[in-house]
Amino acid sequence: MNAKVIFFVALVFSFGPASQAQERPSQPFLYSGGTMGTSYHIKFFGHPPPKLQSEVDTLLVELNRQMSTYEKDSEISQFNGSPAHTPFVVSQDFFEVAVLASEVFRTTDGAFDPTLGLVVNLWGFGPQGRQQKIPDAEILENSLKIIGYNKFVLDSEKSSITKPHHEVKLDLSAIAKGFGVDKVAAYLESLGILDYMVEIGGEVRTKGQKTGGHPWVIGIEMPIDRGVTAGVVPVSPGDHGMATSGDYRNYFEHEGQRMSHIIDPRTGHPISHNLASVTVLAASCAEADAMATAMMVMGADAALKLAETKGIPAYFILRTGEVYTQKMSSFMGPFIKKEK
Ligand code: AMP
Ligand code: MG
Predict the structure, then answer these.
(1) Please, are residues 278 and 303 in contact by the beta-carbon 8 Å criterion?
(2) What is the predicted pLDDT for the residue at 204?
(3) What is the CA radius of gyration of the chain?
(4) Please, how many CA atoms are within 13 Å of residue 230, restricted to the half-sphere of its CB?
(5) pLDDT band for position 10 (cuts 50, 70, 90)
(6) C-alpha of residue 266 to centroid of ligand 1, in Å
(7) What pTM, to 2 d.p., does this model score?
(8) N or C: which end of the chain has fewer CB within 10 A?
(9) How much is the pLDDT for 272?
(10) How many CB atoms lie within 10 A of CB 285?
C-alpha cells in the first residue's frame, strides 16, 4: 500500500504591505503559539496590555480542556465515556458550541455531523491514532446506525447533553478551532482592541483595519501537495470569520485513492469528489469552520446551491487530475481583493 500522511498547519496567511500610521505603531504586535494540535497567530496594531499573552494562553488551554478528544480528562472525553440516556452537564462554552453545531447540522441536512467521532476513529483520523486501512464493513454499518446528531438531546436550561448510545462519540474538531478564534477575538475586543487578525490552524477572524486604513488581506492557498503552493487568492474578510476545509492536508492513500479525514455521514466513508477545498465567510469563525467542513462533504454543486440560497460567501477549489479550477458563490465576490 502506498500510504502516506501529510500534515501541515496553516492554510492561510496574512500578507500585504505594512502600512503607515500616524497614531498607531507602524509595526503590528504579533503573538503566536500552539493550541489544539496546531499553531495560532494574533496580530494587531496597538500596545498590548501586560497580561495579554498569558491570558490568551489560559483561554486556549481551557478550550482544549473542554473540547479536545486527545485529552483523556477533557470535558468532551468525559462526555464520550459517559453512559447513554443520562443528561451530562457541560460548561457554557461547550453548550454554545453544541448548539451552534446543531444549527449547522440542520442547515446542511446532516452533512456536518459532530457525532461522527466513532467513524472518524475507525478510519484512523481520531485520537485512537492511524489505522491506514479500510474499516470492517459490518462495524462501519453498525456505527452508522447509532450516530446522528438529531438523536442527541440538548437541554438549554440544564446546559446538558444526552446521547442515545454509549458508544457514540462527539467530535467537535470541525468547529472548535473556529470557536477558539471567536473566543480570542472577543477577549481582544473586551480590551478595546478593535483592529485585529486572529488565526488558529488556518481559521481566521479579522476586524477593523491595519494601519493607514488598509483592510486585512488573507490568502486562500491553492492546494498543491507537499506544501508547494501554486498561488494565493487574496480575500478581505472585513469583520467576519473565515475558515477553509480541505482534503489535501490530512489523508492517507489506499490503492491509489485519497482517503480524506472528512467523512460523509451518509456513507461513513471519506469524501470522494473533485472538491479540494472550500473557504467560507460567516459572522462567527465557528460557523464558518463548521460550514466549510459541511460544504466539503456536500460537494461543489450542492454546496454552491446552499450558499446561494442562504446568502453564504463561499469559495471552491476543484481538482481534476493536476489541474485546479475555482468557483464561488455570488456572495463571495465582494470579498475577493482585486489586483490593482
Ligand atoms: P475541518 O478541518 O474543520 O474540516 O475538520 C475536520 C475534522 O472534523 C476531521 O478531522 C474529523 O475529526 C471531523 N469530521 C470529519 N467529518 C466530519 C463531518 N462530516 N462533520 C463533522 N465533523 C467531521
Ligand atoms: Mg471545519
Answers:
(1) yes
(2) 97
(3) 20
(4) 10
(5) very low
(6) 14
(7) 0.90
(8) C
(9) 85
(10) 32
